[in-house]
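Hey Z.,

So I finally got round to the magnesium ion thing we talked about over coffee. Here's the setup:
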Amino acid sequence: MPPDTPSWPRRGLYAITPDEPDSVRLLARVRPVLDAGPALLQYRNKRADSALRAEQASALLPLCRARGVLLIINDDWRLAATVGADGAHLGSDDGDLRQARKALGAAAIIGASCYDSIDRARLAADAGASYVAFGAFFPSLTKPGARRAHLPLLTASASLNLPQVAIGGITPSNAPSLIDAGADLIAVVGGLFDAPDPHAAALAYLACFKDHDA
Ligand SMILES: Cc1ncc(COP(=O)(O)OP(=O)(O)O)c(N)n1
Ligand SMILES: Cc1nc(C(=O)O)sc1CCOP(=O)(O)O
Ligand SMILES: [Mg+2]
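And the result:
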């Protein structure tokens, strides 16, 4: 874990990997997205066993390091510690955030899924979350059954003073509405990795932030 991660980039594109079983192909798919300059990459593979997840997370780390992109591990803070990633993302079934914070240390980036719940976001903030994630804001092909969240949640949770991540069915067309509502980071799987040109898609998301901040 690098000692200087407290100054992690709190705004921009948060790329999340697809369920790719072939590790060589995973790296080939991720590289052009990293080259566009996302703030964070989350390694997420819901179909891999623990050995493949360890192999893929370890392989992604040097790719991220070479481009200055921070690597977050989905679901499994122990794997984040084992591979030396920058942090972990925890949902409701992924263990105790306080325990993860204690194990990974103050410098780790630990994100919490809050779905459509401001109460859950408050609890996550109290437990030491680095960011709170809400979603799904739009229908998602990656997670078709995801609970839906709505824009006012982003306004309501601004008082937590934590970076807010929006997720779920986000495209370059609907991202501006989320950024206008207060999202700091836009988390995306399909809009990047199912796009005909993932590098161009990543640039299109980044342009949403530039346009908003101009
Ligand atoms: C940034 C971000 N937000 C939400 C999630 C979803 O986490 P979770 O609810 O644990 O669901 P799975 O991703 O594990 O299916 C996420 N991974 N990342
Ligand atoms: C992993 C995940 N979590 C969600 C939540 O609402 O918590 S929505 C989602 C899927 C995100 O993928 P896509 O960008 O392809 O919709
Ligand atoms: Mg999870």
